[in-house]
Design goal:
Layout lengths: L2 H4 L8 H17 L7 E3 L8 E3 L1 H9 L3 H11 L6 E7 L3 E6 L1 H13 L13 E5 L11 H19 L3 E5 L7 H12 L9 H15 L2 H8 L4 H10 L1 H18 L3 H25 L18 H10 L4 E3 L2 E6 L2 E8 L7 H15 L2 E9 L3 H14 L11 E7 L2 E2 L16 H20 L11 H21 L7 E2 L2 H4 L7 H17 L4 H6 L7 H10 L2 H11 L3 H20 L8 H24 L9
The protein binds arginine (ARG).
Amino acid sequence: MSDAASTVLRPLCDPATELDARFRAAIRAATGVDADPAIRASGNAKFGDYQVNAAMALAKELGKNPREVADAVLNAADLAGVAAKCEVAGPGFINVTLERAFVEGRLAALAASPSFGIPPATDPHAVVIDLCGVNVAKQMHVGHLRATIIGDSLARVFERLGRRVWRENHLGDWGLPIAMTLAKLVREKRDFAQLTLDDLNAAYRGAQRETATDDLDAAHEFRCGPHRLAELELQYEPSRAAMEDAKKTLVRLQSGDPEIVRLWERLIEVTMEQVYEAARTLNAKLGPENNRGESFFRDRLAGVVDAFRASGLAKSDKGAMVVPFADRERPLLIQKSDGGFLYATTDLAAVRFRTYELDGDLVVYVVDARQRDHFKDVFDAARLIGWNKTKDGTESTLVHLGFGAVLGADKKPLKTRSGENFTLKDLLDEACERGAAEVMRRAADPNAPTHGLSGNELRAIGAAVGIAAVKYADLSGDLTKDYVFDLDRMIAFEGDTGPYLQYAHARIASILSKSGESSDAIAGAPLTLAEPAERALALHILRYAQMVLDVGRSLETNRVGLYLRTLAELFNAFYQSCPVLKADDTATRLARLRLCAVARAVLADGLSLYGIAAPERM
Ligand code: ARG
């Protein structure tokens, strides 16, 4: 067995794990080969529960007939206590129908497992998730929403898998633009205690405008006559002065002048208050402990350039330092000719920190797809110098998970009605309001489970619904694609939406509570899977751990949504064909309630991977 195969983690309660072991042994006995039995869930219950697909590839390898190989493997297989029926079909599939008692036993094991059968992690290294990435003195925008939601969800998945996880918020909190903003606010004698993020934003833009000398630069470049130049110089005198002031402020900041540092910290505080509030609303785990922004790496930048120079990987180009690549024209600029460092220099320092000091053997950068070239260059440079290694020398995987844009109905980047860029706060406020309106509308029906709840309770459920709508839409598609932000569709209780799954969860919760049985009585009932709909639901529940492992491997968060939707559908099919509260006898009633309870727990756990709340009533 290869090293890679031996470290593959298998879900503990999944029948596929047991089938894999049994058929692996059978293949070895029948052919002498150590091969993956290729166990797949059967596409059609008519042919059984699982298929073993290995015979075709094996036959090719051995120069034999695939059906004969399948027969030999099946003859050698010990399936006692696992399979009730097995047969070779088609070109050489083995169709397996599991023993009912085996499935019941696996499901009981899953129900008793706090991790739903997810095996304990064996990789001692950490997973590092670069998420959020807001910039100080600027409003958080929809791109940062995606970076926060997706990053948080991936972190939750790895936490579920038992990995050590670092959520790193690589704030834009350092450099000239911030010094410009700071200098402007100081010049205007603003009261820093009273500043809001809107003030910072306005100052940021104002500072950009004030210091712009584009016309003058152009006039110099195109050698305009002395009159024109003198005129422009005069006009731009204040810009020059503002820039001088900003540069002085930057020097004071860099040298740790306590007065300026205190004001700078205040800018970060004002910016981050809103970010933390958005994170709370979004149910994303993000706080001051996750902040390791550009400023954190400021003292390591000269060392980065030195290391690249010393190893001969960087060369001087017109006074600047660049790292050339063998396979492309574009080099990576790591130091400007004026000595200044760049975004990329900081990211190189951050890669080193994350792999070596944080011990990450997987570092995932959840950042806008438009930064693709930047990360390609940074990762390649890091690999050239060998910074893609953990402390014990294990190779780290560096991934840029470049997500697509959020578009408005017109397929253009999302704007408000007045045509401005949507801020995150506008968007979340609207989602919560719309969620509340929908929940209140439904609660007006005297038969609704929410009928009679207080306004506050309904608003809280409504906010959870609105946020679920936004998060589900963001996480359940192909992350790399743009998507259209359509609250009407996203908030519907039917269809491929977050609220649909929450509603499915609330329905199960209400069946359980209507039963009048205590949770102990339900948890103690034996699980019996007599009906096909019960069995289909149980088999899907047993695949939960594999799904979570697959998301960890692929970073495809949409697999969670797909899994949960199928779970909800199989639950509905079960509930339609198998009466629960009105079951024929007490034993059946309790057994079905138990199945409901397990389905509910898995649904809630799956929603928690998206950081989506699962209200009991909706
Ligand atoms: N502040 C950056 C931006 O808004 C995102 C930071 C992403 N993370 C990183 N390690 N570069 O574009």
